[in-house]
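Support request, please re-run this one:
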Amino acid sequence: MSQTELIEEYIQTGNQADLSQLLQANPEIANSNTSFNVSPLMLSCYYKKPEISSILLKYVRGLSIHEAAAIGKPEYLVPILNNRPDLINSFSRDGFTPLGLACYFGHEDVARHLLLKGADVNLPSQNGYSVYPLNSTTAANNNDITKMLLEAGAEVNVAQSSGLTPLHSAAQHGNIEILILLLEAGANIDARTESDKTPADVALASGHLEIARILEV
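Re-run finished. Output below.
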């Protein structure tokens, strides 16, 4: 098994002991690219392994703005942005903006700082999925960031490539608070996915009968 395969396995399984041993023997692998076309640190974020992220941080040589946004560390992101303000709406290797990543991973402080510095709240991912920050935060079921984005001018009916809107995501999660926020902002209850599902259909399929009834009115 190659070292790339090893580090990916240790990240996926949360194997802290073997990861630490691997990095001690070859620290540069922390700065390599994985077969998923993201760094090991970013991969640990996608697998939601904060303990693994902490180990990798000791060996990473210079975080990107996208990695800083994904791990939710303002102390890393702020100086990067101060030195390179042009990176605020840049895209990661896998096509996401710093704001999109902060929204998906639920880092409210980082998302707020990015918005204050002028991040485009309506800029979708460039990876074929067209995921907007509001899609990301509703998919992550985050009430506070959803409210923040709407107050910052996020378009409420943005749809990613599958046709999924923020209202579909709120319906799927059964999140009444996000649902109300979206409806008050003008969310379209008749929006349909590529598979012809309305938010009410999604709520019903997810077992959220009361929300389905609200959306069918």
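The first helix runs from residue 3 to 13. The mean pLDDT is 97.
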